[in-house]
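Support reply, case 0932

Customer input (verbatim):
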Amino acid sequence: MRKKITAICLSLSLMFTGAISAFAGGALESVDITAGTPSPIAGHTIARVIGIKWDARAVPVRYSMNTSLGPNIPNPLTPFTPVLTLAQAQAALQGSFNRWNDIPTSFINMQITGTTAKTTVAGFDFINEVTFRTAAAFAAIASSPSVNLITDVTLVHGDLIDGDADPDVSNLITTVQDADGDGDLEFPAGFYKAGTILDNDVQFNTKVSNGFRFTTGDAALDIVTRSVDLDCVATHEFGHSHGLSHTLDNQYSSSDGNGTTMFPFIDTGDPASEASQRTLESDDVAWSSYFYQEGTAASGPAALQPGDSAFDKVYGLITGELRHGVLDQPIAGGSLSAYDRQNDRFVSASFSGTTQISRSPTGGLFLISPAFNIIDGKYTIPVPKGSYEVVIEPVDGAPVTAASVSLTTQIGSAFGQHNFSEEFYNNNKEGDLELRPGQGKNIAVNPGKTKADNDVVTNRTLNVNNFGNRNFVGFTNQPAGSYYVVQIPAAQIAAINPGQDILVHSGAFDVNVSDASVLPFFTEAMLATGTINPDTTASIDLANPLAHSVGFIGQDDDFSPFYFKNPHVLGQTVRNGIASGEITNLFLVLRLPTATPFPGISNRPPLIGLDGSGSATGLPNDAPMFGFSYVSTNGVTFNRVNNFNFRFSLVLSEPAN
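Our regenerated output:
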């Protein structure tokens, strides 16, 4: 019997940029067209956006190791000097699988149970393949494409699904296995939900043209950017293999610069970062557990076994809805991160929104309007027992693009929803206008309980941004203790809601680091006053700042907020000072660490985001050179930088009612 089974292939790749980096809170997403409801577009169907996962009958998930390139794993850097045998690689890969298998609150179980000698690249064939063979055009470090159902379906004995003449469904088995002994897997007959994964392949790039040398063990970690730790890469990819997507969280706390295993980038030039990302962090563990909850069945994989812990005995849920304060819309794909209030450490994150899309008969996906595509802005964050603060931020490309996360984040981005400023959830005075957006309120969570109705409305802010897109980061050789400064002329502030009160909420500094394991630490951040001299230098009153933070910790590859303590009082001070002529300019100030050597394998200072083509290129830029950026090595003489705009923003708002 031949039956047409509607399925779709999803793929996420580990990519690299600059110093070379690789590509989780939440699910990899697909669509569900089971209902067959007509879309407002003639001939289209409404497709619900859903997560993907393995059915319990497929657990343990059985993988085959591709042996066609053996007995050694290719080494593209020195082709005749292999560093890993096939057996060593397989042992390392199973160790990476076991990092997920060993989570006590998750019943996922992935095992390498066989081999395949295929000489073609991986594809949909009911062989879950782990391979070092990739297509000529494949340019990523690795990827983990899955094929999943996009309709609910009842599979019957003898169904042909993957296009060959070999039946893919059997009524002689109750779990997914090689029922007929021919090397591929058969699914047991029965009912399956849309989103069920049918096939997953994991491929690692070892081509001479653009591939990587894969190593194992601490001794092999190095700063060669095309040499990478196999365990680090595989642990990330195997998160995708069982349905986890990407997260924004690349910095665990004010004392730990490392991020989650499922963050989209691995710094292959930073051994400390590679070693760290082998190990699952709390966010990785929480989402694997949420999707594959231990203790939710009386028998089978989800039943408690020795060493297991029931999900609801460990985890509770934070839930709510996220809305856009300016657009008055539920937000699709906003990021919400829960931080432990006791140690200010990141624990888990989520993306908001229930979405749908219009699907053409040929599989194309189309947007119509926010009212149609975004059903709500609901979110769920799984966390262990504890007290939490929730931080909200957009998926705006820093540090991760919407396209790197999910369909839902892309929908929100396409409708211009990811243009709000980062803030904390404040359950006392939450709204579009807040006095202190940097003030977070306690959310206490107990296992098995849901802390509901933590609804957030993003702030309506007035940002003074004298810059365009980020073109570079710099400066790698700037002396310790140097100052980076951006001028905000009084006239710019006076032109904002003239004659009315304003709140001066915060500054936001676009910062970066050369080594992903290093914190972007600055000696101090300030909001200060000063003047511009006839010779274009600036004189800045560092001794009497309007706001001051000592030991400022930025956010790697992102805008880092410096929340001011008394925004209303500060707003009045600024308004009055401008009116009297006492304040002619405000200056946002960021000072580099004073001690050397700088931390990290590169020993470079923390970096700032730069807008501008640079004098070396002479290329046109998306914004004019405003001449508002300054640098000083001594805190006395501040020299204008004419070829870059420093990406520092002053964040204002109207007063709350």
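We compared this against your earlier run and they match. Two observations from our side: Residues 1-6, 11-24 have pLDDT under 50 and may be disordered. The first strand starts at residue 7 and ends at 10. Please reopen the case if you see a mismatch on your end.
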